[in-house]
Design brief:
This protein starts with a strand and ends with a helix. The protein is 29% helix and 21% strand. It is an alpha/beta fold. The strands form 2 sheets. It has a 6-stranded parallel beta sheet, sandwiched between helices. The chain folds into 2 domains: 116 residues, Rossmann fold, CATH 3.40.50; 108 residues, 3-Layer(aba) Sandwich (Rossmann fold), CATH 3.40.50.
Length: 241
């Protein structure tokens, strides 16, 4: 039986963790809620880069590293691929396909924060769904804009920004109500590919609201790459957990 180290981040990672027995480890960075009802071991915290992760892999006798982190957690994915190579074990990854624009969508891809701010200039009531990243820029909000920022937890805003703490999955009717109540005229989103957060894109399409999409980072090559939870679970069954 192979011993697995599962790096969590996306929703599907928890579903994988629920199939793992006590000899396996589910690793979380520590942001968000930590599950307490799993049979496998749960580890919270970082490793100190690729070298630290490789050392942990050797010390724990890990046979397979499975990267199921968020598609925008590029540094973690690069560390995982490097650590597996250093430790001489295979690295697999679950990587959700990106959303694709549909007829009626007005998507505008931006590469970084500076490009995003330039693209925001014509708008007045943006809805940020980038997580915590915008919090460090609250003192840069133009006088003519009011930001609505949605993150996993509530954080302090200011007179030109309200922070909403909410966790998906989000319902279409609730997203419509949010857009209408806040008079949202532009949506800012990562292209996570998650069905749990996709309704915001449907509402933007319905209302003709533009979407500024943060470009996905380039992720490292791995031994095997899976596009869905089911595909990943079938592959794990094949190695006789």
């Amino acid at each position: 039986m192979k011993r697995i180290l599962l790096l969590g981040g996306v929703t599907e990672a928890l579903a994988i963790a629920r199939t793992l027995g006590p000899s396996h480890i589910y690793s979380l960075a520590g942001v968000g809620r930590v599950p307490t009802d799993l049979t496998c071991q749960v580890r919270v915290g970082g490793y100190g880069g690729a070298a630290g992760l490789a050392q942990f892999i050797r010390a724990e006798g890990i046979d397979l590293l499975l990267d199921a982190t968020h598609p925008y957690a590029a540094q973690i994915s690069h560390n995982a691929a490097s650590a597996a190579q250093l430790a001489g074990i295979p690295c697999w990854a679950l990587r959700r396909p990106a959303w694709q624009p549909q007829p009626g969508d007005d998507w505008r891809e931006v590469s970084d924060w500076a490009e995003l701010i330039r693209a925001l200039k014509p708008f007045r009531r943006p809805l940020f769904t980038l997580g915590r990243e915008p919090l460090q820029h609250l003192d840069e909000i133009p006088a003519e804009q009011f930001w609505t920022l949605r993150a996993l937890d509530v954080y302090p805003g200011n007179e030109r920004c309200e922070v909403i703490g909410a966790r998906g999955p989000f319902l279409l009717k609730d997203e419509r109500a949010l857009f209408e109540r806040r008079q949202i005229d532009v949506l800012i989103s990562k292209n996570s590919g998650s069905t749990a957060t996709e309704p915001k894109l449907e509402v933007a399409r319905e209302l003709g609201v533009p979407v500024l999409v943060l470009k996905r980072p380039v992720l490292p090559a791995v031994g095997r790459e899976f596009l869905s939870l089911q595909e990943t679970l079938v592959a794990l069954e094949d190695i006789a957990l």
